[in-house]
Design brief:
The chain has 213 residues and is an alpha/beta fold. It is built from nine helices and eight strands. Strands 2-3-1-4-8 form a five-stranded parallel sheet, sandwiched between helices. Bound molecules: BIS(adenosine)-5'-pentaphosphate and magnesium ion.
Length: 213
């Protein structure tokens, strides 16, 4: 069974997905990571996504849905943590439709990570990410052992362009307008669970793990 992990930027989706995939037989599908990889490679997808991602705006649904569909079609027997997808009601409906059309693993839970906005800004502005393996760090709460070098793979640890203060506010607005309504969407279909995303990473993990087989 797959799960959807959603919430505002900086809620801890990537951090928790990393723990879940390290310790369970479930795979991580982050549309944000896929876009950043494509941008780094300069592929047609990357060129298309760049102006949206760097500005903190949502990449058009047609592009995003097409990308996920392509991946799912090749991996119908895989249990996924969907991180950052779906992000609009249109995407949520498309995900449901593609899962039933290709007989991929159904969504067993849509878990929302609840975090106060002030904490989000602090987390995002201090975040650093590995360019190679996407490991997530924070300059205060989780620094890499050697500055700029990933503990896990030795890759370059950098600051995402969209973690600048101006872009953070655009991302929070996009979340309020497009993604927050998914709370109601997933409540209406009986899949919604809200989890407190503040506090110790390990205790948040334990609460999410209850929904992962
Ligand atoms: P994406 O990469 O998905 O960004 P996001 O949703 O804004 O979420 P983040 O990755 O910023 O935060 P997170 O929840 O993963 O937090 P993290 O674990 O890193 O998307 C980027 C862009 O791509 C979008 O803006 C859009 O342009 C495009 N895009 C992607 N998907 C799309 C879609 N479906 N449709 C259209 N466009 C799409 O943690 C953050 C920080 O907090 C880290 O430093 C971490 O160390 C720290 N932290 C985490 N947990 C804790 C804790 N418990 N205590 C203390 N610190 C913590
Ligand atoms: Mg993330």
């Amino acid at each position: 069974m797959s799960i959807v992990l959603f919430g505002p930027p900086g809620a801890g989706k990537g951090t928790q997905s990393q723990l879940l995939t390290d310790r369970n037989t479930i795979k991580h599908l982050s549309t944000g990571d896929l876009f950043r990889k494509a941008m780094g490679e300069g592929s047609p997808l990357g060129l298309e996504a760049k102006s949206y991602v760097d500005a903190g705006k949502l990449v058009p649904d047609t592009v995003t849905i097409g990308l996920v569909r392509e991946l799912l079609e090749k991996n119908i027997n895989t249990d996924y943590i969907f991180d950052g997808f779906p992000r609009t009601e249109n995407q949520a409906k498309a995900l449901e439709e593609m899962i039933s059309a290709i007989n991929a693993k159904p969504i067993s839970r849509a878990i929302f990570l609840e975090v106060d906005e002030k904490i989000l800004v602090d987390r995002l502005s201090g975040r650093r990410v590995c360019k190679n393996c996407n490991a997530v760090y924070h300059i205060q709460s989780k620094p890499s052992k050697v500055e700029g070098v990933c503990d896990l793979c030795g890759g370059l640890v950098y600051q995402r362009k969209d973690d600048g203060v101006d872009v953070i506010s655009t991302r929070l607005k996009a979340y309020e307008e497009n993604t927050k309504p998914l709370k109601k969407y997933y409540s209406d279909v009986g899949l919604f669970t809200s989890i407190n995303g503040e506090g110790e990473t390990e205790s948040i993990y334990k609460n999410i793990k209850k929904f992962v087989q």
